[in-house]
Write a structure and sequence with these properties.
heterodimer, A: 190 residues, mainly beta, SH3 type barrels, OB fold (Dihydrolipoamide Acetyltransferase, E2P), 3 domains, 5-stranded antiparallel sheet, 16 strands, 2% helix, 52% strand, elongated, B: 325 residues, alpha+beta, BirA Bifunctional Protein, domain 2, 3-stranded antiparallel sheet, 9 helices, 35% helix, globular
Chain lengths: 190, 325
């Protein structure tokens, strides 16, 4: 893999530190007029999402991280691992719960997700921005009952719980924004 | 239809403030009897300072092979040749160029105001610099303090920069919680620069002018070194609002000492694997002929304008930063 010197540092660059892939969040150049220059960076560990600060002597170089995003179709969960497929090469990969994270409560078979790969293994999975899921359980709404801001909790087929309007019933399909976890509308079978 | 960004990053109000600042600077120095000069931007020799990199270009002349020319990183050496020629007090406002420097406070080309006072000591010059800053900011009552480099480190970090060894310096950086210290490999001056920039600088010059003076001889650059039990370089830096604004020297006038420093700089560059640039022989010849005792200072006009306009990023005071140049 290539190396980057500090002069190439910028937000978004992916580098290796202590054996883990990191994303540069912020890069600050610090230098006294006559003296040693430094790059003070904020980096996010792409495995743990933890943000830490580092200081580099300007001119030092670090290894680039082989991290890239790719669209993959979610196939199934075998009880432990999530299986994804590249729709062009038909290559399949598996992701564990740490990589799938929050996406697990939104995705169902056939959904196309953004998978971030590091050296070919999944680091994280992003669900589609909008998913259509059926409601497996919700209280039959009582007309005129406005407690809870005019909504009620509904459990979806993936196990996620979202607030839906009172008129939405068990068995119906709803469209949900996975970024906010909020109900968008009722949906029809595609 | 083109979507290229073409507009300036500085507001027109800031550009007007820049024009006013330049007028105030010229009026201040003219009234003080200092003559404006111009020296070449593209020079045959370059700075030897291992911490400063020159940009270069090529001159295709008449009847000769192409010659590399280096864009000056400061007009210092050429201005000292004028002093040696008997110019008397002089100043220059010019663009200078430094490679590999870009950030909130750095831009590869920036504007320096540099002036020299033959016959003056550096403490006398500090007082004039303070007067200049007060007048350019329109704050006649702005206070000033002078701290030695040693006092700064003793007060801020309980560390004596002359006595501390590499272990002490590293330990101090660890205690200060500077991120990533564990993996840093630095020399003495590197550690001191780290502590200065990460732990001390932000607190300097808050609501007043803070001059830091009397640096370790290893950081003398072109300053005269005063001998004693603890030799000090007669150099000063001015800080305002946590930002380095100016650097000044009691100028080194000894040609032999100057040659030794150039040789040491070039040796350091060779060790770092950097092709050494040609040292300035004309400057050395001027020192041989005799440079009058003098003090000189360089003020960063862009940063002064940042203080004046209350802006946080150098791009806010430039019409077109390099990414739009």
């Amino acid at each position: 893999m290539a190396n980057y010197t500090t002069s190439e540092f910028r937000g978004g660059l992916k580098i290796m530190l202590d054996g883990d892939p990191y994303l540069i969040v912020e890069n600050e150049f610090v230098k006294p007029g006559k003296g040693q220059a430094f790059n003070r960076v904020k980096v996010r560990n792409l495995k743990t999402a933890r943000v830490v600060e580092k200081t580099f002597k300007s001119g030092d170089s670090v290894e680039a991280a082989d991290v890239h995003d790719t669209q993959m179709q979610y196939l199934y969960n075998d009880g432990e691992l999530w299986h994804f497929m590249d729709q062009e090469t038909f290559e399949q990969i598996t992701a564990d719960a740490a990589a799938v994270g929050e996406a697990a409560k939104w995705i169902k078979e056939q959904d196309v997700c953004n998978v971030t790969l590091w050296n070919g293994s999944p680091l994280s999975v992003e669900p589609p921005n909008f998913v259509v899921l059926s409601i497996t359980e919700t209280d039959p709404g009582v007309r005129g009952d406005t407690s809870g801001g005019g909504g009620k909790p509904a459990t979806l087929e993936t196990g996620a719980v979202v607030r839906v309007p009172l008129f939405v019933q068990t068995g119906e399909l709803v469209k949900v924004d996975t970024r906010s976890g909020e109900y968008v509308s009722r949906a029809k079978e595609e | 239809m083109s979507y290229t960004v073409w507009g300036p990053t500085a507001s027109l109000e800031t550009l007007r403030a820049r024009a006013d600042l330049l007028s105030v600077a010229r009026a201040f120095l003219a009234a003080a009897g200092v003559m404006e000069v111009e020296t070449p931007i593209a020079c045959r020799a370059a700075t030897t300072d291992p911490a400063i990199e020159s940009l270069s270009t090529t001159w295709i002349g008449c009847g000769r092979a192409a010659l590399p020319l280096y864009l000056h990183t400061s007009p210092e050496l050429a201005m000292k040749r004028l002093l040696a020629a008997g110019s008397g007090p002089i100043y220059q406002i010019c663009k200078v160029f430094r490679d590999r420097e870009r950030g909130r406070l750095h831009h590869p080309e920036f504007t320096l105001l540099e002036w020299y006072r033959p016959g003056w000591g550096y403490r006398q010059l500090m007082a004039e610099v303070a007067e200049f800053i007060r007048s350019s900011l329109g704050q006649p009552g702005l206070g000033m303090e002078i701290l030695t480099y040693r006092e700064l480190f003793e007060r801020g970090l309980a560390l004596d920069p002359w006595e501390a060894d590499l272990g002490d310096l590293r330990h101090c950086a660890l205690v200060q919680g500077i991120a990533g210290v564990e993996e840093l490999q630095l020399g003495r001056d590197g550690w001191l620069d780290l502590l200065l920039t990460h732990s001390l600088e932000a607190g300097l010059g808050i609501g007043r002018l803070t001059f830091v003076c009397d640096y370790p001889p290893s950081q003398a650059a072109l300053a005269h070194v005063r001998e004693g039990p603890f030799p000090v370089a007669e150099r000063f830096e001015l800080y305002l609002e946590g930002m380095e604004l100016a650097n000044g020297f009691q100028e080194l006038t000894d040609p032999e000492e100057q040659r030794r420093r150039f040789r040491r700089d070039l040796e350091r560059r060779r060790c770092a694997g950097v092709t050494p640039p040609p040292a300035d022989e004309a400057f050395l010849a001027a020192l041989d002929a005799g440079l009058p005792e003098a003090s000189g200072v360089a003020v960063g006009i862009d940063r002064l304008l940042m203080v004046l306009t209350g802006t946080r990023h150098i791009d806010e005071v430039l019409a077109f930063p390099v990414e739009r140049a």
